[in-house]
Write a structure and sequence with these properties.
- The protein has 374 residues and is mostly beta strands.
- A hairpin with a 5-residue loop joins strand 5 and strand 6.
């Protein structure tokens, strides 16, 4: 308790509240450095009612301002206000980042392709999470193009980095549209068979960073099934119907409505940290995956994707020991992550949609976060 009190006091001495008549930009100078011999900076994009700042270290969304129903702006993603806090991280590692080459978990940090066994850092309870120790979130991306509303980033992940096979060549585009959409597009190729499942990992709070619980946010997830997990969050391989369970979000429901019922899956995840299988009408079209609405500010967010699944994580592992950008602690269940992707641990489950990428093939993935008020 004493440690938390000291941290809270320290945070109050930092930057002030994020709410304002217009976005207040973070200075570029606070994000300029060199990592692994490559230049890092901060880039500002704007279109419609959205302003976003991005660093090419981990392709991280540092800030994203949208208006509430009264036209007041809040920064609705969690992050840090300087590059050192990302590079030499002592709190939540994945704030605002791209995650991969394999988003989510790989059981026991290993998989086999053909006769070759590959082993990776076990960075999460004996499992490999989000690409290991040097995932896509911990490298400097090359900036290929920047305009007022778009940034194109490139990274060539070398064969064998953290044990993963293949020279994986990735181009990723962040774009803002006049319709208040934040679009993420990935294209990747490889020269050796490898598993690829890239995703975006912004932590959203539609009230604004540090402005309270997400349990009263109303959510819809267009999914009739999940992939249940064990106590270290690895799928059993079962496909479970959500009917009659806390995982049924097919109709609008507060995130906290069923969060405290007795349920083994909620115990395993310390709340929601699970993969939903989306009720898709096609294999590759952009379709609505989820909607989140915050009743006080009126903000809503739609998530659109061409992927078969959505990982919903409810900020269950924050403990208030880390400060965000605006002098507030990042607390338990005060943010949500909605990661469009394929299923977790797919290399160990032949009946899951394949994540294997072979030479001559192309990995593609598109996701849209669309914002508005009602």
């Amino acid at each position: 308790m004493k440690k938390l009190a000291i941290m809270a006091l320290a945070c109050t001495l930092m930057a002030s509240c994020s709410k304002s008549e217009a976005p207040v930009l973070f200075p570029k100078e606070d994000f300029q450095t060199t990592v692994d011999g490559k230049d890092v900076s901060l880039y500002t994009l704007k279109n419609g009612d959205i302003t976003m700042q991005v660093t090419n270290f981990g392709a991280r969304v540092v800030a994203l301002w949208t208006p509430d129903r009264d036209g007041k702006f809040d920064d609705i993603v969690l992050g840090y206000n300087n590059i050192d806090s990302y590079v030499n991280n002592k709190g939540e590692r994945f704030l605002g980042a791209v995650v991969g080459p394999y988003a989510n978990r790989i059981a026991n940090g290993t998989y086999t392709i053909g006769n070759e066994v590959y082993n990776f850092p076990q960075n999460n309870n004996g499992q490999t999470l989000h690409g290991g120790l040097k995932g896509l979130d911990m490298v400097v991306w090359d900036v290929q193009e920047v305009t007022d509303d778009k940034i194109v980033l490139h990274y060539l992940r070398p064969d064998g980095q953290d044990g993963m096979p293949g020279n994986l060549d990735i181009i990723m585009t962040y774009a803002l549209t006049p319709e208040n959409e934040f679009k993420v597009d990935y294209v990747a190729t490889t020269d050796k068979a490898t598993h690829v499942n890239i995703s975006h990992h912004s932590f959203f709070n539609l009230k604004g960073e540090g402005n309270g619980t997400i349990e009263d946010l109303e959510m819809v997830i267009n999914a009739s099934a999940t992939t249940p997990v064990n106590e270290v969050l690895i799928p059993s391989g079962e496909i479970a119907d959500v009917t009659g369970t806390p995982f049924d979000f097919r109709e609008p429901k507060a995130i906290g409505a069923d969060l405290y019922v007795e349920n083994e899956q909620l115990t395993n995840g310390v709340g929601y940290d699970h993969n939903w299988i989306l009720d898709r009408k096609s294999d590759s079209d952009m379709e609505l995956a989820a909607t989140v609405w915050e009743p006080v500010t009126g903000r809503f967010m739609e998530v659109w994707s061409d992927q078969p699944a959505l990982q919903f994580y409810g900020g269950n592992f924050f403990d208030g020991t880390t400060c965000g950008k605006y002098g507030k602690t990042l607390n338990f269940r005060e943010s949500i992550v909605l990661e469009t992707q394929k299923y977790p641990d797919t290399p160990h489950h032949a009946h899951f949609p394949s994540t294997l990428l072979n030479p001559g093939e192309k990995y593609t993935h598109s996701c849209i976060y669309k914002f508005g008020v009602k």
